[in-house]
Amino acid sequence: RHPRSHHAVKINPEHWLEGVTHDEIAGGSAMAIRRCLVIHFTSGATAKSSINFWRTPAAKGASAHIVIDRDGTIYQCRPFNRTCGHAGTSRWRDPKTGKLYIGVNTCGIGIELANAGNDPALASRWTKLPLVSSGHRNSPKTIERWEAFPAAQLAACTRVALAVVTRYQLDDITGHDCIAPERKNDPGPAFPMTELRKACGFTGQPAVHRV
């Protein structure tokens, strides 16, 4: 039902991934400029539970283009040429042009990974993998326990990231914790950000953009 790890994913002319589950959430506005990819974790249970939540008034318009479950199942909720409410109050400086963008929803594609983050009680309900004990890049002295990302999920994330970076000639892959560090900690230290960036042609860690 979804691509295997060795299969590339393709984006059709309507800005939808081919061969993945389309679970459309209507809305958003036209996104003419796509400049970065933002990685998140859901702080939740399954991918589907997060998508269902986004359809409720309590979500207050939150959404993302892509949600990837722990088993690697990929859901797309909105085409890549429309905005999603994944970044919130945020800012990002394009490392290639130096241009500062305020409100990254206007130029960023969002990928959410089903993951409990630093909630070990929730994580223990959804994973059998050992939790990762680590400080966060933005608060390295505070050691917390984080849910690990399964190999199938990371492989799916890499395939999607490579597809969108290539199709839209994106200038950066960053995390929610880099564009809104004062209030967000996702995708956090358990996520291999450097490895994902390298697979997509970038080097090192993304810059942290503080107010």
Task: Write out key terms for the chains shown.
disordered N terminus; 5 helices; alpha/beta; six-stranded mixed β-sheet; 211 residues; single chain; 10 strands
For the record, give the distance between the C-alpha atoms at the N and C termini, rounded to a whole number. Answer: 42 Å
Low-confidence stretches: 1-6
Radius of gyration: 16 Å
Largest sheet: 6 strands, mixed
Strand order of the largest sheet: 1-4-3-7-2-10
Structural class: alpha/beta
Amount of beta strand: 15-25%
SSE order, one letter for each helix or strand: EEHEEEEEHEEHEHH
Got a strand count?
A: 10
The backbone outline, from C-alpha atoms, is globular
Overall pLDDT score? 95
| Count, helices | 5
Would you kindly provide a written description of the structure presented here, covering whatever features stand out?
With 211 residues, the protein is of the alpha/beta class. It contains five helices and ten strands, in the order ββαβββββαββαβαα.
Give a short synopsis of this structure:
The chain is an alpha/beta fold and 211 residues long. It has 5 helices and 10 strands.
Secondary-structure blueprint:
Elements: E1 21-22, E2 36-41, H1 47-54, E3 66-68, E4 74-76, E5 91-93, E6 100-102, E7 108-113, H2 120-126, E8 132-136, E9 139-146, H3 151-168, E10 172-175, H4 176-179, H5 193-199
Parallel strand pairs: 1-4, 2-7, 2-10, 3-7
Antiparallel strand pairs: 3-4, 5-6, 8-9
